[in-house]
Write a structure and sequence with these properties.
By secondary structure, the protein is mainly beta. Helix content is 6%, strand content 34%. The chain has helices at residues 19-22, 87-93, 134-137; strands at 7-8, 27-31, 36-37, 48-52, 72-75, 81-84, 98-101, 105-110, 115-117, 123-128, 142-146, 149-150, 158-166, 169-173, 185-188, 191-194, 206-209, 212-215, 223-225, 245-249. The strands form 6 sheets. Strands 8-10-13-11-12 form a 5-stranded mixed sheet. Strands 1-4-2-3 form a 4-stranded antiparallel sheet, with no helix packed on it. A hairpin with a 4-residue loop joins strand 2 and strand 3 (36-37). The protein is elongated, with a radius of gyration of 27 Å. The N and C termini lie far apart (63 Å).
């Protein structure tokens, strides 16, 4: 018998059974006040309700969720779901589907195509081999992080202390062409589509010369636009050209 619901004043186990073996995969015990019950602390004197586990962050279970006892969930391409005691077992069973961690993981190695949902958890080390790339593991709209730092370089095959988060900026639109009166000023309007809950958006301007990007200081955020020599052959050198306009971000 497995439990996937119901409330119980007392659950007694016999014949060497354990409390996890009574639960349907992915379910856990919850007290009447809503507190989750760790499998290691469950006993016959605890009144509980059996509910789907939300896998709260709790490192006490090591590499498995201490409430349901599983390390990862697999959703296959046909929509079927299975639960696994280790991340490696889940990866082997993925079949091109999605592996979602239910607890922090140690070292993970992925050698066949799949999507990886770190689900707010952290992997000590993530390695890809064969034709798998780090970028190919990401669900749409997500990026890797190490601590609080976003990881933009995914050209390698390993990441350490890696987590995953939804990219806060969905989309940015701005005009690619502008016109203004000589000597006048214009405003570059940037339309930003954000994820719900994202705070204020700040911008940083960069100047690109000879293929190298240089971050501009705050006082340089007003950008002078000048004619290039090829656009104004009557001038002697680029330094001879007066500023045409100032573009101010907003």
């Amino acid at each position: 018998m497995t439990l996937s619901g119901g409330s119980f004043d007392s659950i007694k186990i016999e014949n060497g059974a354990d409390y996890q073996s009574l639960l349907a995969a992915g379910y856990a015990y919850q007290k009447q006040d809503g507190a989750w019950v760790k499998l290691s602390e469950m006993n016959e004197n605890t009144a509980v309700t059996v509910v789907e586990c939300s896998h709260p962050d709790d490192p006490s279970g090591g590499n498995v969720c201490p409430y349901c006892g599983y390390a990862a969930e697999v959703t296959k391409t046909d929509g079927s779901i299975s639960y696994h005691r280790t991340a490696d077992e889940a990866i082997a069973a993925a079949g091109g589907g999605t592996v979602k961690l239910l607890a922090n993981a140690g070292e993970i190695t992925i050698s066949s195509p799949l999507k990886l949902d770190l689900n707010g958890k952290t992997a000590a080390k993530l390695t890809v081999t064969g034709d798998v790339t780090l970028a190919s593991l990401l669900p749409e709209g997500y990026a890797f992080k190490s601590g609080s730092t976003w990881i933009s370089d995914l050209s390698g095959t390993e990441l350490t202390n890696v987590s995953m988060a939804k990219i806060p900026i969905k989309n940015m639109n701005y005009p690619t062409e502008m016109s203004m009166t000589y000597g006048g000023a214009g405003t570059l309007l940037v339309k930003v589509e954000k994820e719900t809950g994202t705070g204020a958006v700040s911008f940083q301007w960069y100047k690109v010369e000879d293929g190298k990007a240089q971050q501009l200081a705050a006082r340089q955020q007003r950008i002078n636009l000048i004619f290039l020599r090829k656009s104004c052959p009557q001038a002697g050198t680029p330094s001879d050209f007066p500023p045409l306009a100032t573009v101010t971000r907003r």
